[in-house]
Predict the structure.
Amino acid sequence: MKSYKITLLRGDGIGPEIVAEAIKVLDKAGERFGFAAKYTEALMGGCAIDATGVPLPQETVDRCLSSDAVLLGAVGGWKWDTLPGNLRPEAGLLGIRGALKLFANLRPAKIYGPLKAACPLRPDIIGDSMDIMVVRELTGGIYFGKRGRETVDGVEAAYDTEYYTVPEVERIARVAFESARKRSGRLCNVDKANVLESSRLWRETVLRVAKEYPDVELTHLYIDNAAMQLVRNPKQFDVILASNIFGDILSDEASQVAGSIGMLASASLGEGKCGLYEPIHGSAPDIAGKGIANPLATILSTAMMLRYSFDEIAAADAIEAAVERVLEDGLRTPDIYTEGCKKIGTVEMGDAVVAALA
Ligand code: IPM
Ligand code: MG
């Protein structure tokens, strides 16, 4: 039987609760489709800080590097909010993305039919559906550029640098074009080329790469306009290509248009064989331990893992279908609850997906 080595980074806050549900679903999928998931655990984020003093111990990096894929819950929490930047839980997340060279972040945002009522936009704006793929650059830009603090003439200041090389833009652009090719053939590049030099280089590079993809229809929007268009007329978008910071912002916005940030999965892929899969939401410390977190984004992340890392397409489709089924049956965690549905908790939601999968 095929077997996949998966490192679990349960993380902080609701992380452990939602990862537990995702594992149940993954195991059930393995049972049905003939593969075994072998898990190993590692620490990252606040839990790693508490246990080892740093957010990303070398042992965690090594473990991830020697596995086939990584499943991450979420990191962060109030407890660690006052630590210096390089010792915060988030630094662990950025560190693992860098260490695994995960430059391409795929964040699909779609409205599930039964969740239409949770979408804050008017039905005539949303229409029948919305299905967007945000392709976010993940290991460059302002997140990784030169940063610092200084005091100039007695005045304290700080800076972060948006910095991109041509090869960095080329490789993420190719991921976006390939993705558009597999979908409806439309790609919208987002930048701020009217102001930023880094965006001008970004756009020039995207235009050059576009020549390799004459079959893909390429458009461009400035980030401010893109943020507006996403709520004005989300249906115009298929694949969106964006830098690290612009993709971070747009994917949160897209998730809300889709109904809840609790529904959005993501895949981070790179040069190496090991991809990382995580919900795009955070650790939600305010609801941690209450058993009410929505595990669906993490469950859907395992579907992305099966699709992108293991080529287990049938199993991935089955998990996604099981999630739809559960939603059609009216089961809802509080974040996506609307009147007339049945409100359930994290574990019940995981059980329901497992049952629908069986
Ligand atoms: C995300 C998160 C992270 C990011 C934070 C937690 C570092 O917002 O994955 O979108 O900004 O990339
Ligand atoms: Mg974010």
Q: What stands out?
A: The pocket of magnesium ion (ligand 2) is lined by residues 248, 252 (CB under 6 Å). The chain has a mean pLDDT of 96. The radius of gyration is 20 Å.
